C-alpha cells in the first residue's frame, strides 16, 4: 500500500514538473514572437556553429551548473556590409526561453572573432531537465543611426519584440533598422561539440 502511494506521488511530481516546464516554454515563446519589419535580410555566418547546427562547447558557459563547462567564449560571427548602415548590433537570444546571452552594439565592423566580446557575453547553460536542447539565435541588425534607448538585461529573460522595437527607433522616428539576419545554433546540457 505504501509503495503504491509513493509511486503515485512520484508520478504526480513528474507530471507537475512537465507541466511547469511546458508553461515556462510557452511564456518564453510569447516573449520571442518576431517583429515583421519588411527589411532586407543579411546573410549571417559563424564558424562557431557546426554543419549540424550545434554551437561549439567553447561557446558554452563556464558556470558550474553547465556540464561539461565551456570556455564562455563569444561566438565568431560575420555578415555582409549593408549600404547606409552607420552601425550594427549583434544579439544572441535563447529562442526557447527568450534569454539574452549576448548584446554588442555600436559596431562598425562586419566580423567578430570568437572570444572577442566576452565581457558582453554569457554562454548557454540550458537546464539539464529532460535533456532539453535549446536554440540560440545570433541576430545582426544594420542600423541607420544609434537607437534612442535599448533596454537589455544580459543573462536574463527579455521581451525580444521590445528590444527590436527599441532598435528600430532613433531620434523619435521608426524604421531605424535597415536590414537584419540571423543564424541559429543549438546547445544542450552535456554537449561536447568541438
Automatic annotation (TrEMBL):
The lineage of its organism: Bacteria, Bacillati, Bacillota, Bacilli, Lactobacillales. Keywords: Membrane, Transmembrane, Transmembrane helix. InterPro entries: PEBP (IPR008914), PEBP-like_sf (IPR036610), YbhB_YbcL/LppC-like (IPR005247). CDD domains: PEBP_bact_arch (cd00865). The chain crosses the membrane at residues 9-27. The keyword Transmembrane applies. This is YbhB/YbcL family Raf kinase inhibitor-like protein. SUPFAM superfamilies: PEBP-like.
Amino acid at each position: 500500500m505504501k509503495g503504491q502511494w509513493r509511486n503515485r506521488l512520484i508520478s504526480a511530481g513528474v507530471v507537475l514538473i512537465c507541466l511547469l516546464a511546458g508553461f515556462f516554454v510557452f511564456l518564453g515563446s510569447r516573449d520571442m514572437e518576431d517583429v515583421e519589419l519588411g527589411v532586407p535580410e543579411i546573410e549571417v555566418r559563424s564558424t562557431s556553429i557546426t554543419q549540424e547546427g550545434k554551437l561549439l562547447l567553447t561557446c558554452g558557459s563556464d558556470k558550474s551548473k553547465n556540464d561539461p563547462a565551456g570556455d564562455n567564449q563569444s561566438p565568431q560571427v560575420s555578415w555582409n556590409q549593408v549600404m547606409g548602415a552607420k552601425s550594427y548590433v549583434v544579439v544572441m537570444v535563447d529562442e526557447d526561453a527568450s534569454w539574452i546571452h549576448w548584446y554588442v552594439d555600436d559596431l562598425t565592423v562586419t566580423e567578430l572573432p570568437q572570444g572577442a566580446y566576452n565581457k558582453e557575453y554569457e554562454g548557454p547553460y540550458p537546464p539539464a531537465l529532460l535533456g532539453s536542447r535549446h536554440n540560440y539565435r545570433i541576430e545582426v541588425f544594420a542600423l541607420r543611426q544609434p537607437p534612442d534607448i535599448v533596454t537589455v538585461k544580459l543573462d536574463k529573460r527579455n521581451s525580444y519584440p521590445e528590444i527590436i522595437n527599441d532598435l528600430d527607433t532613433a531620434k523619435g522616428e521608426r524604421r531605424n533598422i535597415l536590414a537584419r539576419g540571423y543564424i541559429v545554433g543549438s546547445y544542450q546540457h552535456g554537449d561536447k561539440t568541438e
